[in-house]
């Protein structure tokens, strides 16, 4: 388990993950920019959302309930000046162009993260659940551990995949076998270390294995299936592909059928078209995630 | 050479021999190519779901989202460009599933929908690379009708 310790030590050193901060900062510098457009960019970017929630939940702005969505955070902060401070100081200098270990091209991980978030939210709607707003945030951040492992630890995903294929394991089980930890757990631990509330860190940490979570949580269930649907849709697939196991217990608990799943996938693909320009923006040099 | 990129629920065709049509990141979606070597025209469709019945309004707006309407519409467009149905060579890739998934089975249902459609039209699928848990990228080279599938860094001809 030496590798696990090394990874956990790396987690403790990571200040922030790369994000579309450049684009957001440019918007902040434009007097004609719409606040709603800024909120939209932040809401669809895992790095910015994580940074924003990290800062807004820090003791400096303390008091009151922990913030769980970018929208809540923005309305809490209120002024552009404060937000600019956050964006200019909260982002790590180590930008990346691709997540090598997981074979993810620039912007692919962002696309996948947004698709998970949309699928989780859309699924909640299709099932008539009154899912909390932070379902979107939890879905968006669910894959954050992959960035950390791929960029900061440089895992050899090929070795993990080979083991998965040879032994018939899911990718996260193979990560456990090779690294002593899987990317969902890494993501959860990272966000916990940043002080994000358990309503978000719990679903991130357990999104690949909801059956192992300490308690039943609708947000976790939605993110778990949202992640499966995003992979089926095929947006931003890495080397791990569709090599994950959907939980039978969650499928039964939500009352999912193939018809519901098809409808949700169709809606998500349609919704993705409306945010395509964000992906293009985020693939630009200023924002190389 | 122009590279035509087919996104999800999209179709592209070309009759320029130097062109290549590609679709990236096929998960449970099904990529289907049809090529008429004599007319020198070919197309590729990237279908999300098997049947338009899943969302009829969406099928009207975008038939390429579904295998049954998407492949049929692609064939119609190819015929408009001079292809003959009996000469078309069909190949398919994608249709993966989540590991251990016995409910959604979207990939398998997509491939079954293609099989039924082709059978009704007395057409045989020339080649396919479907199923499993791996993502796939699919290329159609218009000069020869060659179809290449790339998965996990390895390429093979279909």
TrEMBL record, chain A:
Signal peptide: none annotated. Coiled coil: none annotated. Transmembrane segments: none annotated. It comes from Pseudodesulfovibrio alkaliphilus. This is HDOD domain-containing protein. Residues 14-210 form the HDOD domain.
UniProtKB/TrEMBL annotation, chain B:
It is an enzyme of class 3 (hydrolase). GO terms for molecular function: protein-glutamine glutaminase activity. Gene3D superfamilies: 3.30.1330.200. Belongs to the CheD family. This is Probable chemoreceptor glutamine deamidase CheD. The keyword Hydrolase applies. It comes from Pseudodesulfovibrio alkaliphilus. GO terms for biological process: chemotaxis.
